[in-house]
Structure prediction request, 159 residues.
Amino acid sequence: MAMLTCPECKGKISDKAASCPNCGCVIRKKRRGCMVFIVLLMLFSVGMCYFFYEQPASKPGQTKQPDKIAPEGPTKQDQIERMLLASGEVFPLRCYIQDNMMNNPKSYEHVQTTFIDKGDFLLVETTFRGTNKFGAVVRNKVVANVSLKGDVLKIISAE
Ligand SMILES: [Zn+2]
Prediction:
């Protein structure tokens, strides 16, 4: 049986005693458990502080970007890149040309594509080769507006 020192009279008391037999001072039996609890609570609080502190600390750089981008889903850059093929072609326009402007879609051969970002749409200029109705390979240049969603809005010129 461990002995405690009475905080009042400094006498020895059994750790099982509820109060000091000498002075009647009430002994907090769970003092040690209490201390452990308090230490744990403090560690927990420190942990929580650290946790909450770390959030804002790591956020400033990250939160700003999601705030700008997240509500609208993919960024404009994403939308543009989604339409581009490795060759640099704007895929929806290529499909449009093959489906609507060629006698022989299979003869389509990409030469060069450039585009200008016009805000809501791209002004695309693409040059390709293909066979005409006489079977001769001809070079064509098409200028068109293509929306960011991938719709060919308007063929501006085809030559
Ligand atoms: Zn005492």
